[in-house]
Design a protein that fits this description.
With about 650 residues, this protein is α+β, with helices and mostly antiparallel strands. It contains 21 helices and 20 strands.
Length: about 650
């Protein structure tokens, strides 16, 4: 704690500060937008305090030290210019014809008006509802950016017939990596295939991406010289561009043929993904499960802590892109609550504080005139959470001038997320809403014209599909929801127990690789989620109207599908192999630990029954291992041995 002379109370110490790179880049943009005639490099340094301070420090030096300081300043200036251009801000590089002045043309600043039709507005609204409870990075901002008149659906009473979660945070993070680099450009990453004990370096040329339960990358493998399929949640670390200098002459020729579409020009993404529905041979899975459970479990466990928020950490360019768009949102007037900003930009509480502090230091016309953030946030992270976020008062931005008053981009994650949302909407639209599906397709084409080429390529090569068996079940369930009647089910739960029950369906929930019916179950007299792949038979009961309980459920917010805790529940500790670590979130971890060296993830959770836990581990083929309790681990080993024994 800091104690200042004259203070009677101790003040919380400062733990947060603005991010200098963001402040510099956006202050430069403000200065140039306020000077249509342009500014020279030195004039920019005069206008932007963070540059001026470094320049003045450089000018006090001499000789070699001055040269080094000047090179460092020029490098910093270059990074900031690149960040602005990556945001979609057309910053010109000066020449003698321009009197060596940098310029930003106000006419080219900001996103164009897409002139949305009424059906396209409705398609955006449906996309927002579809992903209302899944914070896909940048989606909520993208919805606002292309339609500034769009309003969040904030009422908890808003009915939601569909909810979706397209993939884990890890899968979407890798998908964004691919989209940012672009398809048909060589990349490299670390990958752990099923049955492998560790990750291997792969060098590939991405061709397309698609979702068939999980997200997959279809690519040409340079080392194997053939097309391969990679499940994105088995990628470790980031996907990065492969330097051209590392390619052999033969590999460079193949890359050139792929880039010019002389190879893989007619790639059928859906046909490539279709075989992914088939599971590994049962014997292979049992052998993997047996290997994982042989021998005793570790005597001690790593320290398990609360699961992290799972939000993607942004680099400097992405932070600049987000903050310039956040400024435009706040300048739109009316006030925006901190809770809305957290959702709209899918960021942590700590990052929001740093973004607000960065905004407060952006020059609007020249130092010391700045954007005035009200209410101004405290400089202490703990105080920001306990006081500022708890109060959740609308944030109003008072500008010295309104030059940053337009959204300049969808952000790369936002653009890709919006394309995913629209594709998902087209996939799930019932026949009665064919006009909405057509509007979503038209909107896709409009958006393709305003996003970076790499994002457009990734979006066009993307395929979303569901298991073919889901179609008839979804149609029957959709008709029951529309008409308000019940369904009769024969169902096998996670433990393999069969039951017949009458349900009143209210929502279809897409959660990663699984599709569920959210319903009021008359048998259980409560809310339940039924996985489509476990429904053995579904019969419509048009004479059995849904009751008040289903109506109330339909108007309530949906939790993520998870196993309820009952007297039968079995607490377990599971260890996920590095290639399966991203799957841990699907098992509702209470506590978890990720080994930074190996990527192994250990979680504590619970299953409805011991049988359900055993089945999960046997079907995982060694990717998921029981650590506690010892008797459950032994049961998995015994069951695998018995199943593999000669008959």
């Amino acid at each position: 704690m800091q104690h200042h002379e004259g203070d009677t109370d101790q003040q919380p110490r400062q733990t947060a500060a603005a991010e200098d790179g963001v402040v510099r880049a956006l202050s430069m943009a403000n200065a140039l937008l306020n000077h249509p005639g342009g500014l020279s490099r030195e004039q920019i340094f005069d206008k932007v305090e963070l540059y001026r301070a470094r320049r003045d420090e450089r000018d006090r030096l001499t000789g070699v030290q001055r040269k080094r300081a000047d090179a460092a300043l020029e490098k910093l200036f270059g990074h900031d210019k690149a960040h602005l251009r990556s945001c979609g801000i057309a910053l010109s590089e000066p020449s003698s014809e321009d009197d060596y002045r940098y310029r930003i043309d106000r006419r080219q600043y900001g996103l164009p008006d897409l002139q949305l039709t009424a059906d396209e507005h409705m398609a955006l609204h449906r996309a927002q509802l579809l992903f209302a409870h899944h914070h896909i990075a940048g989606l909520q901002h993208a919805l606002w950016a292309i339609n500034p008149d769009y309003q969040d659906v904030v009422s908890p009473l808003a009915p939601r017939a569909l909810q979706a979660s397209i993939g884990s945070e890890a899968e979407l993070s890798h998908l964004i990596d691919v989209a940012t680099i672009g398809t048909r450009i060589p990349v490299t990453f670390r990958y752990t295939g099923r049955g492998r004990s560790g990750a291997e370096t792969r060098r590939v040329v991405p061709l397309a991406t698609g979702a068939q339960g999980h997200w997959y990358l279809i690519a040409h493998d340079l080392d194997r010289d053939q097309q391969r399929l990679f499940r994105l949640d088995r990628v470790t670390g980031s996907i990065t561009a492969l330097p051209a200098a590392t390619l052999t002459e033969a590999e460079a020729e193949v890359v050139g043929q792929i880039a010019s579409e002389r190879l893989y020009a007619q790639l059928d993404v859906s046909a490539v993904l279709e075989p992914t529905e088939r599971q590994f041979a049962e014997r292979e899975l049992l052998c993997g499960a047996l290997r994982a459970h042989q021998g005793p479990a570790p005597q001690t466990l790593p320290k398990l802590t609360d699961p992290p928020g799972g939000l993607r950490k942004d680099d400097a360019a992405a932070k600049t892109e987000r903050v310039v768009n956040m400024i435009a949102l706040l300048l739109a007037g009316g006030g925006v609550r901190p809770s809305q900003l957290l959702v709209k930009y899918a960021i942590t509480e700590e990052q929001l504080l740093r973004d607000l502090l960065s905004i407060s230091l952006v020059n609007t016309h020249g130092f010391p005139d700045t954007l005035d953030v009200q209410p101004f946030p405290p400089l202490n992270d703990e105080q920001f959470v306990s006081e500022y976020l708890t109060a959740d008062e609308p944030i109003v931005l008072h500008p010295g001038s309104g030059v940053l008053d337009k959204p300049v981009s969808l952000t790369k994650p936002g653009a890709l997320s919006l394309m995913i949302a629209l594709k998902a909407l087209i996939e799930v639209c019932p026949a009665a809403d064919e006009h909405i599906a057509r509007a979503a397709e038209n909107l896709q084409q409009k958006i393709l014209g305003i996003v970076p080429r790499s994002i457009a390529q990734a979006a066009m090569s993307m395929s979303l599909s569901r298991a073919s068996a889901d179609g008839p079940l979804l149609q029957t369930a959709g008709e029951a929801m529309d008409a308000g009647y019940a369904l009769d089910l024969e169902y096998a739960d996670a433990s393999g127990r069969y039951s017949s029950r009458t349900i009143e369906p209210v929502q279809i929930v897409y959660d990663g690789p699984h599709t569920y019916l959210r319903a009021w179950c008359r048998h259980a007299e409560g809310e339940r989620f039924f996985r489509l792949s476990r429904i053995l038979r579904m019969t419509a009961l048009p004479q059995a109207a849904q009751g008040a309980e289903a109506a109330a459920l339909d108007l309530s917010q949906s939790p993520r599908p998870q196993v309820p805790v009952t007297a039968e529940s079995v607490p377990v500790v599971l260890r996920f192999a590095p290639c399966a670590a991203a799957q841990a979130v699907m098992y509702s971890p209470v506590k978890q630990h990720t080994d930074k060296q190996t990527g192994t993830r250990t979680i504590s959770t619970h299953f409805a029954t011991q049988e359900a836990a055993v089945r999960v581990c046997l079907e995982a083929g060694g990717d998921i291992e029981v650590i506690r309790p010892a008797e459950l681990r032994e049961e998995v080993r015994r069951r695998a041995e018995d199943a593999l024994a000669p008959s």
